[in-house]
Amino acid sequence: MKYFLIMASALLLMTNTFAREVALTFDDCPRKSGPILKPLDRDLILVKELKEAGITAAFFCNSPTRETDGIERLKLFAANGHLIANHSASHPDLNKVSISDFTKNIDQADAELRSLPNFRKWFRFPFLHEGQNSKDVEAVRAHLKKNDYTNGYVTVDTEDWYVDEILRQKVASGKSYDKSRLCHVYAKMMADDGDFFDKMSVEALGRSVKHVILLHETDLNAICLSSLAKEYRNRGWSFISPDIAYKDPIASTEPLSTTKLNEGRVFALAKEKGYSGPTQKTWGKVLEIEQELNKQQVWR
Ligand SMILES: [Zn+2]
Question: What's 21-295's CATH class?
Answer without folding.
Answer: alpha beta
